[in-house]
Amino acid sequence: MLPSRLKRFLASALFLAALPPEPADAQAEDRLARARAAMVEEVRDDARETGYATGRPVLDEAVMSAMARVPRHEFVPPEAVASAYLNRPLPIGHGQTISQPFIVALMTDLLRITPGRKVLEVGTGSGYQAAVLAEMKAEVYSMELIPELAQSAARTLARLGYTNARVKAGDGYAGWPEHAPFEAIVVTAAPEEVPPALLEQLAPGGRMVIPVGPRHDVQHLLVIDKQADGRTVTRKSLPVRFVPLVPGK
Ligand code: SAH
After folding, report:
1. Domain containing residue 76: CATH number
2. Residue at 3 is within a domain
3. 243 lines ligand 1 (CB under 6 A)
4. Which of 1, 11, 56, 186 lies at a C-alpha separation of 20 to 30 Å from 155?
5. Does residue 5 form part of some domain?
6. ω into residue 181 within 30 of 0, thus cis?
7. Total domain count, the chain
């Protein structure tokens, strides 16, 4: 670069750096906030339409307000930011996806989160579901098999200030025995059978929400309640489609 061009470049760079916060950014933030509000309305519609199968035509307002606050666009790759508030799953790399907002809301609702509840999530992925749980003030333990995803989800959660969500790279089939028992367990990838270690780590009176079924086919969301005597009662909810829960090596 010629010295004079270099000087001009530096001058314009300094000028840009000295500008007040860009109005373009504020506009973008505003657009994202409006898109997020529209997404929440779509989630309400989906809940109403599937109420016959889920028993939850109206989701808990605390869940809806968490959905309205968590910035989903922070959990998707840069090229997907414009689609972040569509009520759809989106690719997050490594062949994995961030779940559809309605499914995240439904699973969170079924978990009956109250502040301080200890929750295990298996399948951190982007960290979005963990953020929704953290936003509801649960004590969140989340496990992810792919180390790169675990790392980037942990970074995103920390950057957004979700100090009540911990992420660990590891095989969720084994659960997280050091922190068991959990009052709620949510699995966001589908095994063909309920992993026994997770059933063991569910506290009496606790609930697990898990998609179970064949790989790359339709699975069913199961709601499993562990009674005080340790016996479990299982209810079948919506047909869903999740990526497979892969056994670790
Ligand atoms: N809850 C995520 C979506 C998860 S997609 C979100 O909000 O973005 C399912 C995730 O489960 C994938 O990231 C996949 O890598 C992970 N996974 C698959 N098998 C696993 C296992 N045995 N243990 C932990 N995570 C697993």
Report:
1. 3.40.50.150
2. no
3. yes
4. 186
5. no
6. yes
7. 1
